[in-house]
Amino acid sequence: MTSAAATRTTSTRGWFFNQPPGLAVLFFTQMWEIFSYYGMRTLLVYYMTKQLLFSQQHASMVYGVYVATFYFTPILGGVISDRWLGRKRAVMIGAAIMSFGHFLMASESLLYFALAAIAIGNGLFLPSLPSQIDDLYAKDDPRRGSAYNFYYVGINVGGLLAPLVCGTLGELYGWHWGFGAAGVGMLLGLAIYTLGARWLPPERPRTQAAAKAIDAPRMPREAMRQRILALVAIGLCVMVFRGAYEQSGNTIALWADVGLDRNAGSFLIPMTWFQALNPLLVIFLTPLLVMMWTKQARNGREPSPAKKMSLGAFGVALAFAMLAFVDAQSGGHANWMWLALFFVLFTVGELFILPIGLGVFARLAPGGYAATTIAAWYFASFGGNLLAGVLGTLWSAMGHAAFFGVMAAVASLAGVLLRSLDSTVLRAEAANGNGRPADQRSEEQAQTG
Description:
It is a single chain. The chain is mainly alpha-helical. It has two domains: about 1-205, Up-down Bundle (Growth Hormone, Chain: A); about 210-449, Up-down Bundle (Growth Hormone, Chain: A). It has 17 helices and four strands. The protein has helices spanning about 5-10, 20-50, 55-85, 85-105, 110-125, 145-175, 175-195, 210-215, 220-245, 250-260, 275-300, 305-330, 335-365, 370-390, 400-420, 420-430, 440-445, and strands spanning about 260, 265, 265-270, 335. β2 and β3 (about 265-270) form a beta hairpin. It is globular, with a radius of gyration of 22 Å. InterPro entries: Dipep/tripep_permease (IPR005279), MFS_dom (IPR020846), MFS_trans_sf (IPR036259), MFS_Transporters (IPR050171), POT_fam (IPR000109), PTR2_symporter_CS (IPR018456). Keywords: Cell membrane, Membrane, Peptide transport, Protein transport, Transmembrane, Transmembrane helix, Transport. It is found in: Cell membrane; Membrane. Its main location: membrane. It is a multi-pass membrane protein.
């Protein structure tokens, strides 16, 4: 890094929460990318079942495969970015491809090509953007630890706006208006990133990752075995959990349309608005949970990572069990407030499991293989979304109450399995010399499933 670049990217204080201007560039770029992704995703199942007249089973499978692919492509995209394109070029190319994919959604016959384009573009974009945050700060900069908190807010602001803007346009004025708004959002993100490029850190040398892997101290074989065992086991549990968790944008969205009384007085709540509850709750609940865990840590009572994740899975199971009871009692026409309560329980459970799991993967990453280990976390999301698509096909094959009961059982199974892994994870972390403070940053990024 040149002296001028170092001054600009690591020392500048500006209007954005007294952070380097480069963080604002990354914040708003990510915000608009999430806006475009969730804006399209909010409409996707409705579009396939109402406009394209897909069967529910077909729509659920397409949805599950698409979201799974969205999480799989970053594994390949990260390698391409690190070895050939560089982070800045990968972000720009990925954003352009995603924008193109969103606009392709205007043609009904190009649905699969559009979804493929969005997933491919995301593969280049997703691993390349947040990896630039650390380079905005000097190693001893006290602002560094809070940077991911601000970045994480950007993710959820985009997720909050998406169903309110794209969902409303698609539902009230036509599906293509909603998809078009998603494409415009992605173009805004690309414009912000391009115009703000001068505030971003320069590219890392291509040989840096390889040098780190070579210089990393060799780990005892038993310690490595314990780490890999813990990571594989957690990954499999998270796959099972996501089978139920990812129903929020699939069968839960369908239930909001056909099984819910959405009248609030004389106002009919648009069905897509309920998808905004999850990111809104994440924004408000995250600080409260962090405060609670900090207080527990000071008193020596903070649960271990596997116990937290188990509690999160049981929390999501409770949310689905509640819907099973409500749907059975209401005769398939429940008050909309029950879905709002579902998202409260659902989001609390999510915050107990997904950020914590990503943090475990970061802490247990072998030296020189951090990116590969994080890619494995995305692979767990990939497998879980495929499972969610398969499970979603049961929606039409059984009653809604029974389906929610099955999802509660799936989440509970994940909770039981995670609880049984507590000693395995603790041994792996003990062999790792406990977690590094820097690893907490990965927990603050998560959602993203």
